[in-house]
Design brief:
Structural class: mainly alpha
Radius of gyration: 39 Å
Distance between the termini: 121 Å
Shape: rod-shaped
Largest sheet: none
Length: 437
Amino acid sequence: MKKIILSMALLLSVGTIMGQAVDKAALKLLQKEAKAQMAEALKINEAITAKINEKTPLTDQDIADCKKGLTYIHKAIKGGGIAENKLGEAYKINADLAQHPFNNMLNKAVNKEPFDTAYFYTNLKEMTDAIQGELQHTKVTKGETGNENYLKGKTFNLAQCGDYFIYAAQFMSEIGKYDKALEAFETAMNYTKIYPEVADKAKLRIPNEQIAYYAFHTAHEGKLYDKMDELYDQAVQFAEGSLGTKQVKASSYLERGDSTAWAGYVRDLTLQEPSTSTDFIQMLISYYLKKDKEAGPDSNLMLPYVDEILAKDPNIYIAQYGKAFKFFEAEKYDEAFEAYKRCTEIQEDSYDSWYQCGLCKYRQALALNSTVSTIKNQTEAKKALEKTKSIFGEAIPFFEKARECAPDEPQKWAFELRQCYSVTGQAAKAAEMDKLL
């Protein structure tokens, strides 16, 4: 048994040695290929650098050569044939070959000349990753012949590139590549995490919440709703665009065909900030009124909502008005009158509120008047008629206040005032209203 074990061990040992021999041969081939690829990339880089040093403008062919050089250096780096102590040199070539087109595009942008905006982003990412690789794989040496200052310059260049990702994102958005635009925005927002080498040096010109705001609206434009949801909490912190962000967030639910989610979002938003969300409150009131109408007379979604709003802030005019409208619609004129009257206290120049106060009385008077002819007892009938006239009279001050709010629009109040003045025996004033109609 021991002999068998020893034989197996020997066999395994031989197999391992053979495997090492194959790996060594493969590695030599990789190293040879990498050396050749690196030499080709370096040759192209030196030629382009010479033109730049001579201040000769780069041509389209030069840019194409840079791309060709990048293909060589990519194969060399990814192939695994470059020794560890040579990786820094390889990444330097990579960074240079990306920086030449980058600088060329920047010059064109300054001179307002056209350039490939889609390539701007991919090349920028290429350049920053290559600079990072160079910094990570280059040993710092000090002294007169050292590279310390050179690497500090490279670090500074990398730190500056964060802002360019914002421009790249805008370029990608303009050509409809929203997914790439969002990648660029997210790179900018997470720049110091992606490139920790510049964590203490990179300072973007605009704050992250503003970048998130741009990214959020880009996601909306591209109908990338999941990304919108991810970015919302940060985007809404950008105060200058906060309202617009909330509006877009709300409308996105309707775009998705999810009115229930829309209502839930708007409800939460308005209850948190009722005084700054009156437009949303009005929209949700309309939504609940429609739902109540569709569901039938027993449905009551709207009133509990406006009561919650008014509990938070009793001076929200549109909530109070919605409550009054709901009572008026149900012909609960006493409750409606009190609610509309509260509206006039919140907003004294509101034509609608004053008019509706008068209309509550007017409708009550009409309802009572319709019963007079059915009362057989003349005394009781006379009392009902006098009561009717009295209620018509109670409506007059409110219609007159409405008139004060809209003096040049008699079509809004003259008819009801004529009726009230006629019933209450004020013929001259009724005639005055006639002339205005």
